[in-house]
Amino acid sequence: MTADLSQIVKAYDVRGVVPDQWDESLAELFGAAFAAITGADAIVVGHDMRPSSPGLSRAFARGAAARGVDVTEIGLCSTDQLYYASGALNLPGAMFTASHNPAQYNGIKMCRAGAAPVGQDTGLAEIRALVESWSESGAPESAARQGTLTQRETLTDYAAHLRGLVDLSAIRPLKVVVDAGNGMGGHTVPTVFEGLPLELVPMYFELDGTFPNHEANPLDPANIVDLQARVRAESADLGIAFDGDADRCFVVDENGGPVSPSAITALVASRELARHGGKGTVIHNLITSWSVPEVVKENGGTPVRTRVGHSFIKEEMAKTGAIFGGEHSAHYYFKDFWNADTGMLAALHVLAALGGQDGPLSALVAQYDRYAGSGEINSTVDDQAARLAAIKTTYEGQEGVTLDELDGLTVTAADWWFNVRASNTEPLLRLNVEARDETTMAKARDEALAIIRG
Q1: Angle 88-94-97 from CA coordinates, rounded to 5°
Q2: Parallel/antiparallel/unpaired status of strands 149-151 and 70-76
Q3: Is 145 found in the same domain as 43?
Q4: Whole-angstrom Cα distance, residue 195 to residue 185?
Q5: SS3 of 126, please?
Q6: Does residue 1 carry a pLDDT above 70?
Q7: Does 412 lie in the same domain as 382?
């Protein structure tokens, strides 16, 4: 029977329940299809700590090797470590992970050489079509020779590359609590932090793809409760939480207070602009705070607003030659990291900024956190398009209010703005609101929610 991949091939990656939705036999076909679409002679493959990851990763490697492709297997790694390998070795890559999804899930994040993204419009649709066509009869034999499988250690070089981009040698000693969530941060942090003037307090560093302590999704407030308590108990300078594949980082201050990813984006942007002589383009998605473009301009840079999603950010970074990009979801992208996202490099910037002055983190980030935000509010709706149309009708033509549809619908007034976007995978509308003060934010939020929820 021909496989139906509509449920597992997403906009940017492959993701689904193992073995119900996909398994090693399909992974092997994905490997063969990836080899065919990239046309590569060699690729690099890595995987996270999920129980199904080693088998799926090896099956993908077999599928590629059967088509004459030499495969470098880097084994256990974070997603940004795979991007490092793709960039440093200049090879297409595949990372086996389902990021912060529950244990029964797994997936593949694919990239071309130099960590260039593979999404629906950049090869993923063609890969899906090949896998579907081959799922009944198997991939046709096409190689004159069998490709090789070679193991390679990249963690040391990855750590050295990151540390070469941020100077931490002169910072004051800092006490930092890191919650790896039993994910790949437990693998990468000890090597990256080794020898730095940091007292590391590790939490949940044991690699365990069943996530026994909490979900490895630090954007959900429930998952940083342990970190917040530990930072306060240890009188630490800050806390850092990584998601399952450790490509995103979330920061809490010395009081355990969450630091908004927009404030981190603004802080890192100011540092990257300083490093580039006060010039450069910085990408931010349309639901980061007003403070991000303000800080970029104040530091001599040019802010560019884009849609939500890593393929759009990376595309815009390549097009504009941007030095840095940030998203509300705690993804941070660096020109010096092949335009790819790396939570670890963002974390090093935060440590360098904090350790380079005497004040606490809460005071340092206050200058970058200027407005009142709602965070993302999800509403289940029967008809996404009808609800969006109702919002448009309500606000269109109001004096002093502008609308744009770059991504969903953004409504902007002098003292507030909100964005409503439809989820691609669920019957949800996602609302983000920001205003100059809490009262104004609450009013704008409640008015928007009344329309969304009918």
Answers
A1: 120
A2: parallel
A3: yes
A4: 17
A5: helix
A6: no
A7: yes
Segments forming the whole domain that contains residue 161: 157-255
d(CA 242, CA 316): 25
CATH of the domain at 318: 3.40.120.10
pLDDT score at 287 = 96
CATH number at residue 381: 3.30.310.50
- What are the two backbone dihedrals, phi and then psi, of residue 309, each rounded to the nearest 5 degrees? 125, 140
pLDDT digits (tens, 9 = 90+) for 104-154: 999 999 999 999 999 999 999 999 999 999 998 888 877 789 999 999 999
Q: Which of 188, 15, 37, 22 minimizes the C-alpha distance to 112?
A: 37
Let me know: does 271 contact 300? Beta carbons within 8 Å: no
The reply to whether 163 and 238 lie within a common domain is yes
- Reference 169, options 355, 342, 336; nearest CA is 355
Q: What is the mean pLDDT of the chain?
A: 96
In tens, the pLDDT along 355-385 reads 999 999 999 999 999 999 999 999 999 999 9
Instruction: Specify if 5 maps to a domain.
Output: no
Residues 144 and 23 in one domain: yes
Of 53, 99, 262, 270, the active-site residue reads 99
Model confidence band, residue 43 (pLDDT cutoffs 50, 70, 90): very high
Question: Do 308 and 335 belong to one domain?
Answer: yes
Look at residues 144, 145, 97, 93 and name the one whose alpha carbon lies nearest to residue 114. Answer: 93
The pLDDT of residue 231 is 99
Last residue of one domain, picked from the residues 153, 170, 191: 153
Across the range 182-205, mean pLDDT stands at 98
Q: Is the pLDDT of residue 327 over 60?
A: yes
Task: Assess whether 99 carries a catalytic annotation.
Answer: yes
Q: Are residues 149 and 206 in the same domain?
A: no
Q: Are residues 222 and 338 in the same domain?
A: no
Helix (H, G, I), strand (E, B) or coil at 308: coil
Q: Is residue 9 part of a domain?
A: no
Contact 347, 361 (CB under 8 A): no
The reply to whether 21 and 143 lie within a common domain is yes
Bridge partners (DSSP) listed for residue 96: 47, 108
Q: How many domains does the chain have?
A: 4
Instruction: Give the pLDDT score at 424.
Output: 74
Distances (CA, A) of 293 to 17, 249, 258, 263: 39, 21, 21, 11
